[in-house]
Write a structure and sequence with these properties.
The protein is an alpha/beta fold. The protein has two domains: 202 residues, Ribonuclease Z/Hydroxyacylglutathione hydrolase-like (Metallo-beta-lactamase, Chain A), CATH 3.60.15; 68 residues, Arc Repressor Mutant, subunit A (Orthogonal Bundle). The protein has seven helices and 15 strands. Strands 1-2-3-4-5-6-7 form a seven-stranded mixed sheet. A five-stranded mixed sheet has the order 8-9-10-11-12, with no helix packed on it. The longest helix has 26 residues. The chain is globular, with a radius of gyration of 20 Å. 42% of the residues are buried.
Length: 294
């Protein structure tokens, strides 16, 4: 496993396969004898931490969380999801099935009903003048956040992963509007180094970061365009639009693509109706282009 020093107090721990899903690249922040871990990950051998700060509740970030640090904390808006397995599965809209036991074993998933919480303006003093400031980046989940490490100038943007696939916003509490706002917000934080959790970066050149961010954000308009193209051929329900290549390529869609894509398409449809570009849902659950007879 590659270990990379990003700054005097920050180390990036590269997961297998370049940190591509389901792996990732957590950070540690160390000052004196205190270590703060920013997210966990599969097959990560970072040293034991005094505090594990979770960017959000997804399983690839919470691997064996209770064993990785003396204490664990997450944004107060995401904490209820980790209180029970039923809450977690429900937040993702995932069906019951044989996959559950293997999933929980693979990620070392255990409920954390008493997990510590923090708010939008939280600042964690690591010691020696080093601090970790919470930067709210909602949309992916309601409580998704990044962390700014100062005085090092390292900005950890978690699952703003800068992939060309584009953002994910499929959980209960996810928001397309917040996702758009977050993509703008990450450009407003002054930082020398920008690190995401998954395979892109770290970025030491702002121009490179902005170029990858633009490609990442462009997926939103591309998805909307494919959705409008399908509606132009006739009215359809959200379920009828699922599996048509709007979010996932049909030939490479993962097993969980159905409920994920359906949730994301519903957010796009709501946005189009609010903008007046589409109308619906009708009594039969179908949407159509505005001004179209269906």
């Amino acid at each position: 496993m590659e270990q990379r020093e990003l700054s005097p107090h920050v180390t990036r721990w590269a997961g297998p396969n370049g940190g591509r899903v389901p792996f990732g690249n957590p950070l540690t922040v160390t000052a004196g004898t205190t270590t703060v871990l920013l997210d966990s990950g599969l097959q990560i051998d970072a040293p034991p931490a005094d505090l594990l700060l979770l960017s959000h509740f997804h399983e690839d970030h919470t691997v064996d969380a209770a064993a990785r640090a003396t204490s664990v904390a997450i944004h107060q808006r995401d904490a209820p999801v980790l209180a029970s397995w039923e809450s977690f599965r429900g937040a993702g809209g995932l069906p019951e099935g044989e996959w559950e036991a293997d999933f929980r074993r693979e990620y070392g998933w255990n409920p954390m009903p008493d997990i510590g919480t923090f708010g939008d303006d939280a600042v964690f003093d690591v010691g020696g003048g080093v601090r970790v400031t919470v930067v709210p980046l909602p949309g992916h989940t309601a409580g998704h956040c990044g962390f700014l490490i100062e005085p090092d100038g390292v900005f950890y943007i978690a699952d703003v992963d800068l992939s060309t696939f584009g953002p994910m916003y499929s959980d209960v509490g996810s928001s397309l509007a917040d996702t758009r706002a977050t993509l703008a917000a990450v450009t407003e934080v002054g930082a020398e180094v920008i690190a995401s959790y998954h395979h892109k970066g770290p970025y030491f050149e702002r121009e490179e970061f902005l170029a990858d961010l633009a490609s990442h954000a462009a997926a939103l308009d591309a998805r909307e365009g494919r959705l409008l193209d399908l509606l132009a051929t006739g009215s359809r329900s959200a379920e009828e639009l699922t599996g048509r290549g709007i979010i996932y390529r049909v030939e490479t869609a993962p097993w969980y693509a159905g409920p994920v894509e359906l949730a994301m398409l519903r957010l796009h449809l709501d946005e189009l109706v609010e903008r007046g570009a589409a109308a619906g849902p009708e009594d039969d659950g179908r949407y159509r282009l505005a001004g179209s007879a269906g």
